[in-house]
């Protein structure tokens, strides 16, 4: 190894000795350049490291100072927001007290309305949904809190509010009161006029064809658009103008009609004077308000403050002037009256908008008369009056003014004539109410007398003959008790009790469930003891009908024309077991039905509620009825009842399920001519007490019967109860 090293060293030395002076110089230069390059690289590396270190250090200092500034700003912002929200709560409380809106009562603004509230029990959050005030965004947020993923909500075709209602059922007023004890409650409000305009632009001006709001727009145009000389409507634009919409809306409001949720005042919607709200957010400061809310309830990790449904085109605030210039100052003042409490309770002002309006008078569309007896409280005039501008008449000015005054005098004359006729009707109705009241007194006296004569006025404590509370509906809120007699305006009054229970007309119209099923969800069947207690402070009523007419109506509706599974089985049972010659795919004749019914009654079998006597159904000799209405005088009777319990503003006297085809009186003879006098006499025995207690007579019907002997009433084999 040492020999090899020495040899290598010797070889290199020999090489150096052989190098020329020039080569020595070049080699030295080469080494110098390499050393210089290495030195430069080292210096650059050190400099770069120092600058990077300084840069990182300075950026860290900058970030630290910036985050501190942001934190201080954030804390100040939160404190300001918290102070602002406290001021709003205090202001609302004071204004509610001044207007006496914080007192409990039975009308729509003095009792809590829980219909539009969303309650999330997991996060203890309660929100009253005010449409057109960030409602789409917060429905989205509540859907996220309910567990729906962002991907699902993005791809779903379902309406977001429908999805939300699947997870957030509408609470009752009592449930809402309980939830408020341990939850944060909030609502978002907006300047009433901006909210109204936003609703108009979104639902009418930009409505899609064949939707509910587009059809509403067509109706408004047909009713309120000024026609040309040939009585033709101008169809441009296709949607109602803002002025036409406002005229329609004011007429609906004055008439006391139910308004669409997009332009219903917040006072009626959320009843803020009856419900405690911890946070009152405003559309004008929404970003700060909802940032505070989300942090306050610790939901930053789930939802973000964003708007999901901005108005298409220019923003509402930017175009307000263009729309409100279409209105007169009088119309804007009327709109202020409509939304008066929304302005006052949430500290908004209408002054800016009143200045925009035109000075000329508004066109006459509907006249509101404060006469109680006029249905709905108003009269529509089927006319349009153009605004007269005298300065543009020229030579025809005097002629036009003359005709204008003539038309005005005619309008006043016809208005006074109408007013006179209305007052006359009012007096007639007052007389009619007195007559109706006397009739009810007579009916009660007659019923009590007949019950005593027949020995049917058993005591409530009688162990055998107890009152039957099964078919009673009790509404404690309106102190109303009703015994439902099927086929005696029962569908109409089940509908009315559903309205009183809080179901909306739109919901009942679209709902696929049977009305009585919906009603029983809100009105559980009372016990006899509960019924006795309710009767002490309630108005109780029953609607009765001529027993034979009620029976025929039930037969025609349930067997002759009804193809539901239940009554089809009844129909086939009668045909199969009673009449061997009748095809099984046919319905039984009236005579076959009567034979079957008489057999069931004589056998003591339980009867269907549609042909059970009223005596067994409502036990009228034991239950005190304040009002005994009759089908034959139903219009007058239920008008009196509705006024007597002060429900004119909620329900209307109308029939929801009239008998299809000709009226009962026109066809009753054809049906009863199928029976023998003996069968009709047996039917009378079956409904004997219904005839006697409610003053009905079977004589007319006995005259229809045939003289021949009735067929055998029943076979030896017993038909089981269906």
UniProtKB/TrEMBL annotation:
GO terms for cellular component: Golgi membrane. The chain crosses the membrane at residues 399-420. It is an enzyme of class 2 (transferase). Keywords: Carbohydrate metabolism, Glycoprotein, Golgi apparatus, Membrane, Signal-anchor, Transferase, Transmembrane, Transmembrane helix. Its EC number is 2.8.2.-. GO terms for molecular function: sulfotransferase activity. It is a single-pass type II membrane protein. Its main location: Golgi. GO terms for biological process: carbohydrate biosynthetic process. It is found in: Golgi apparatus membrane. It holds the Pfam family Sulfotransfer_2. Belongs to the sulfotransferase 2 family. This is Carbohydrate sulfotransferase. It comes from Aphidius gifuensis (Parasitoid wasp). The lineage of its organism: Eukaryota, Metazoa, Ecdysozoa, Arthropoda, Hexapoda.
């Amino acid at each position: 190894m040492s020999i090899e090293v020495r040899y290598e060293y010797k070889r290199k030395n020999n090489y150096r000795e052989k190098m020329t002076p020039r080569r020595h110089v070049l080699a030295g230069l080469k080494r110098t350049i390499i050393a210089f390059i290495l030195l430069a690289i080292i210096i650059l590396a050190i400099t770069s490291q120092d600058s990077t270190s300084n840069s990182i250090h300075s950026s860290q200092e900058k970030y630290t100072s910036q985050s501190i500034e942001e934190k201080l700003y954030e804390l100040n912002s939160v404190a300001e927001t918290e102070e602002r929200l406290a001021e709003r709560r205090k202001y609302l409380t004071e204004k509610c007290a001044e207007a006496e809106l914080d007192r409990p009562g039975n009308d729509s603004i003095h009792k809590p309305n829980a219909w539009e509230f969303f309650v999330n029990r997991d996060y203890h959050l309660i929100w009253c949904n005010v449409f057109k005030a960030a409602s789409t965004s917060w429905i989205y947020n509540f859907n996220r809190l309910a567990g729906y993923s962002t991907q699902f909500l993005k791809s779903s075709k379902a309406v977001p509010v429908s999805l939300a209602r699947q997870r957030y059922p509408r609470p009752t007023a009592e449930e809402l009161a309980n939830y408020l004890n341990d939850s944060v409650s909030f609502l978002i409000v907006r300047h009433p006029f901006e909210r109204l305009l936003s609703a108009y632009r979104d639902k009418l001006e930009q409505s899609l064809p064949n939707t509910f709001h587009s059809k509403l727009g067509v109706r408004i145009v047909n009713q309120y658009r000024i026609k040309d000389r040939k009585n033709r409507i101008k169809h441009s634009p296709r949607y109602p103008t803002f002025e036409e919409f406002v005229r329609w809306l004011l007429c609906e409001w004055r008439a006391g009609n139910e308004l669409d949720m997009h332009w219903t005042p917040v006072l009626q919607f959320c009843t803020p004077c009856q419900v405690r709200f911890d946070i009152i957010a405003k559309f004008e400061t929404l970003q700060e308000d909802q940032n505070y809310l989300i942090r306050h309830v610790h939901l930053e990790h789930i939802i973000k403050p964003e708007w999901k449904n901005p108005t298409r085109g220019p923003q509402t605030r930017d175009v307000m002037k263009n729309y409100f210039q279409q209105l007169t100052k009088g119309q804007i003042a009327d709109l202020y009256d409509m939304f008066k409490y929304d302005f006052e309770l949430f500290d908004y002002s209408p002054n800016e908008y009143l200045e925009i309006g035109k000075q000329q008078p508004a066109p006459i569309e509907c006249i509101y008369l404060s006469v109680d007896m006029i249905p709905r409280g108003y009269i529509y005039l089927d006319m349009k009056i153009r605004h007269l501008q005298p300065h543009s008449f020229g030579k025809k000015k005097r002629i036009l003014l003359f005709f204008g005054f003539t038309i005005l005098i005619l309008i006043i004359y016809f208005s006074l004539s109408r007013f006179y006729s209305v007052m006359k009707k009012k007096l007639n109705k007052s007389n009619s109410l007195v007559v109706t009241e006397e009739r009810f007194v007579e009916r009660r006296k007659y019923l009590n007398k007949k019950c005593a004569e027949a020995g049917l006025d058993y005591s409530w404590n009688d162990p055998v003959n107890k009152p039957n509370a099964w078919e009673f509906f009790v509404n404690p809120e309106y102190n109303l008790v009703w015994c439902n007699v099927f086929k005696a305006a029962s569908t109409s009054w089940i509908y009315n009790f559903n309205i009183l229970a809080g179901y909306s007309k739109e919901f009942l119209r679209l709902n696929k469930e049977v009305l009585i099923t919906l009603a029983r969800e809100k009105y559980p069947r009372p016990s006899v003891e509960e019924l006795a207690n309710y009767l002490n402070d309630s108005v109780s009523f029953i609607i009765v009908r001529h027993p034979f007419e009620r029976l025929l109506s039930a037969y025609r509706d349930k067997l002759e024309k009804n193809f539901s599974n239940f009554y089809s089985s009844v129909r086939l049972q009668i045909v199969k077991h009673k009449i061997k010659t009748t095809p099984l795919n046919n319905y039984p004749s009236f005579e076959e039905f009567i034979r079957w019914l008489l057999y069931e009654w004589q056998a003591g079998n339980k009867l269907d509620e549609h042909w059970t006597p009223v005596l067994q159904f409502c036990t009228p000799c034991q239950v005190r009825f304040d009002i005994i209405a009759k089908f034959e005088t139903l219009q007058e009777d239920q008008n009196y009842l509705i006024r007597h319990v002060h429900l004119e503003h909620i329900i209307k006297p109308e029939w929801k399920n009239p008998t299809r085809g000709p009226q009962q009186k026109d066809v009753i003879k054809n049906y009863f001519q199928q029976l023998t006098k003996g069968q009709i006499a047996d039917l009378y025995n079956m409904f004997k007490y219904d005839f006697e207690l409610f003053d009905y007579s079977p004589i007319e019907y006995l005259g229809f019967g045939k003289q021949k002997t009735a067929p055998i009433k029943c076979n030896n084999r017993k038909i089981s109860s269906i």
